[in-house]
Specification:
By secondary structure, this protein is an alpha+beta fold. The chain is globular and about 75 Å long. It starts with 5 loop residues before the first helix and ends with a helix. The strands form four sheets. A six-stranded mixed beta sheet has the order 2-1-10-11-7-6, with no helix packed on it. The chain contains 19 helices and 14 strands. The structure holds flavin-adenine dinucleotide. Flavin-adenine dinucleotide (FAD) binds next to strand 5, helix 16 and helix 17. Keywords: FAD, Flavoprotein, Oxidoreductase. This is 4-hydroxyphenylacetate 3-hydroxylase N-terminal domain-containing protein.
């Protein structure tokens, strides 16, 4: 089939009945649920872009294996040019969502492509696992499916490993083998966009210890598999707010969910890893499942930071406060953060390496530096928006006020910005800024930037240890030898 249209995506959603729980209600008609309606349409819009002549050649290609047109996020990059082809889709999708949706389909497509191309890793442990991941990649690529993933255990007692939790099946684990497949029980989080996806893929961050064998799992199943419950977090908007009042929250909320597996049968041909602590711990480093998608996250993060920077600059300009040095300093700080991320991203692309099996890999150090910096740069951007908007952020009336005759004069007079900025324009801008920096929606976006890729504290620890191992760090040694040179090199 190859690339889907938005309508084909909607049709697939309508054809399924996943068990979704939202605010104590079981959702029976996903398409009619206001909370999901607009986010579904936003994802459908991305699928449509694949068919738009203005984008098609930029974000899709003809697959060598099938001759069908597929999304560039399924491309195994073998060269700088391939990395750029793949980047094009990251950029187009990120710009279409202002970087606010982190788990657009391209993200997990890259994870899966990476696992597929490095399936020799799975083969070392079990030839079936390798064949399964290869077939699954082809299935997802050729049907253009939308995946969610859950790689973290629920946050229960973090001082104990999975097998030490009070209930042995609090964290998702294997129960038994049956002829049809592997029976799994327990929970996994944090499956962003789960209710509106086609499939879920389960794998884990490293950190398994002996005794955790039953939790060492990787598999994928349809999102409506019997026994799989999707428990949504409290929504941050009810789906009835207007675009004018909440231009971002009304469009781009990515629902997050806990996945509970109630003796779910995972067919054997969908099991990628099982009962092997060593393999589960090596999955990330050996398949590139962390490093390749970091390219998508870097591009998306850059777009998001650019959006926040532009919001701050427009806000300051709209009320004439960017003549003040303190405001200019804050805005310059933001612009310099943005330029730093842009530069790092280019370094990651230009300094790519080719792995042993011929895969082009964007530079680890540059991408991890982006991952290390954004959890502080993005919250700082939000703080600057809050500081520049100040009390005005809390004073925005609603769209309904603008449509009320009795209020027209007051609206036109008291909400006007600097010369040339009408009340309507100023209020619209401040509302957009408030969605980003004040609303629960905006707070989630902030929490996303901190944690979407794992705990930044531990990630920095890993980064430091790798950096120490890989970099020569010889300058100090050289400096300590200077006294010897002094004696050897005659001074003229
Ligand atoms: C908005 C959002 C969307 C996300 N989307 C997804 C998704 O689509 N799929 C998915 O699988 N995951 C997703 N994640 C989950 C993300 O991977 C985790 O939030 C992240 O790995 C951190 O884990 P945690 O939230 O359980 O925090 P914890 O690991 O419980 O950490 C809590 C605190 O304790 C500290 N801490 C805990 N353990 C240790 C330790 N061993 N050593 C030192 N400090 C420790 C941490 O530094 C942190 O401050 C998302 C997260 C967010 C916020």
């Amino acid at each position: 089939m190859g690339i889907r249209t938005g309508n084909q995506y909607l049709k697939a959603l309508k054809s399924r009945e996943p068990e979704i729980w939202l605010s104590g209600r079981k959702i029976t008609n996903l398409m009619e649920e206001p909370v999901f309606r607009q986010p579904i349409l936003e994802i459908a819009r991305l699928y449509n872009m694949q068919h738009d002549p203005g984008y098609q050649d930029q974000i899709t290609h003809i697959c060598d294996e099938t001759g069908e047109r597929v999304n560039n996020s399924f491309l195994v990059p073998k060269s700088y040019e391939d990395l750029m082809k793949r980047k094009a889709v990251f950029e187009v999708f990120a710009k279409a969502t202002f970087g606010l949706m982190g788990r657009t389909p391209d993200f997990l497509n890259v994870v899966l492509t990476s696992m597929y191309y490095n399936s020799s890793f799975f083969e070392k442990y079990n030839i079936d696992w390798a064949r399964n991941i290869q077939n699954y990649y082809r299935y997802v690529r050729d049907n253009d499916l939308f995946l969610t993933h859950a790689i973290i255990n629920p946050q229960n007692d973090r001082s104990k490993s999975s097998h030490e939790q009070k209930d042995v099946y609090t964290h998702l684990g294997a129960v038994k083998e049956i002829p049809e497949g592997l029976v799994v029980r327990g929970a996994k989080m944090l499956a962003t966009l789960a209710p509106i996806t086609d499939e879920v893929i389960i794998y884990s961050f490293p950190g398994f210890k002996p005794g955790d064998e039953r939790y060492a799992l990787a598999f994928a199943i349809p999102i409506d598999t019997k026994g799989l419950r999707i428990i949504c977090r409290e929504p941050m908007q009810d789906g009835t707010r207007s675009f004018f009042d909440h231009p971002l929250a009304s469009r781009f909320e990515e629902m997050d969910a806990l996945l509970v597996f109630d003796d779910v049968v995972v067919p054997w041909d969908r099991v990628f890893l099982y009962n092997n602590v060593e393999a589960a711990n090596l999955l990330y480093p050996k398949t590139g499942a962390g490093q390749q998608p970091a390219h998508q996250s870097g591009v998306r993060g850059l777009v998001k930071l650019q959006f926040a920077t532009e919001v701050a600059m427009k806000l300051a300009d709209s009320i004439g406060v960017d003549i003040y040095l303190n405001v200019q300093n804050d805005l310059a700080e933001l612009a310099q953060s943005l330029e730093s991320i842009r530069a790092l991203l280019r370094v990651s692309e230009i300094e790519y390496t080719i792995t042993e099996n011929g895969e082009a890999m964007p530079d680890y150090t540059a991408l991890e530096t982006i991952r290390g910096l954004l959890p502080t740069m993005y919250p700082r951007a939000i703080e600057i928006i809050q500081t520049i908007g100040a009390g005005g952020l809390l004073m925005s009336p609603t769209g309904a006020d603008f449509e009320t005759d009795e209020l027209k004069e007051a609206m036109d007079q008291y909400y006007v910005g600097r010369e040339g900025v009408s009340s309507y324009e100023r209020v619209a801008l401040f509302k957009l800024a408030w969605d980003l920096c004040g609303e629960a929606f905006g707070q989630r976006l902030l929490q996303y930037e901190r944690y979407y890729t794992g705990d930044p504290v531990r990630k920095k620890g890993i980064f430091y240890n790798n950096y120490k191992r890989q970099r020569s760090l010889n300058l100090v040694e050289d400096a300590l030898k200077t006294s010897v040179w002094d004696k050897q090199v005659p001074v003229r």
